[in-house]
Amino acid sequence: QVQLVESGGGLVQAGGSLRLSCTASRSIISINRMGWYYQTPGKQRELVAEITSGGSLWYADSVKGRFTVSRDNAKNTLYLQMNSLKSEDTAVYYCNAKIRDESLIQWNYWGQGTQVTVSS
């Protein structure tokens, strides 16, 4: 059980940068998988970047080399550094945590979303 709150979205020109933050209501040290998803009208929510408790990373092809996901366990916070932003990056970005219960069933937890708009 965890609550997630995103911040850092906004309006930025193409080529600019933003840093999204996701602060959890409890320690994230034991959360195996945390990541960022984005969603635009007419499309399903898609995984952008993910990091495990062991430091393994995954990025969607569309953001490789431009975005960096990281976690600060001391601050219970997940970050997404977004550089060289493109208009195609415009979307609502959601923080996600995957947590297993005592029966080892994995549950998804979501933040409320933060809007990122990239102008041409």
Task: Summarize the structure in words.
This protein has 120 residues and is mostly beta strands. The chain is 0% helix and 54% strand. The chain contains no helices and 11 strands. The strands form 2 sheets. Strands 2, 4, 5, 6, 9, 10 and 11 form a 7-stranded mixed sheet that branches. A hairpin with a 6-residue loop joins strand 4 (33-39) and strand 5 (46-52). The protein is globular and about 50 Å long. The termini are far apart. The mean pLDDT is 96.
Which oligomerization state do the chains in this entry correspond to?
single chain
Q: What fraction, in percent, of the residue positions are helical?
A: under 10%
Q: Provide the β-strand percentage band.
A: over 45%
Please identify the structural class as seen in this structure.
mainly beta
**Major sheet size, sense and barrel closure:** 7 strands, mixed
Task: Please provide the ordered H/E string of secondary-structure elements.
Answer: EEEEEEEEEEE
Counted beta strands: 11
What overall geometry do the principal axes of the alpha carbons give? Answer: globular
Quick summary:
The protein has 120 residues and is mostly beta strands. It has strands at residues 4-7, 10-13, 18-24, 33-39, 46-52, 57-59, 67-72, 77-82, 91-100, 106-110, 114-119.
Please tag this protein with its features.
mainly beta, single chain, 4-stranded antiparallel beta sheet, 120 residues, 7-stranded mixed beta sheet, globular
Q: What's the structural blueprint in terms of helices and strands?
A:
Blueprint: E1 4-7, E2 10-13, E3 18-24, E4 33-39, E5 46-52, E6 57-59, E7 67-72, E8 77-82, E9 91-100, E10 106-110, E11 114-119
Parallel strand pairs: 2-11
Antiparallel strand pairs: 1-3, 3-8, 4-5, 4-9, 5-6, 7-8, 9-10, 9-11
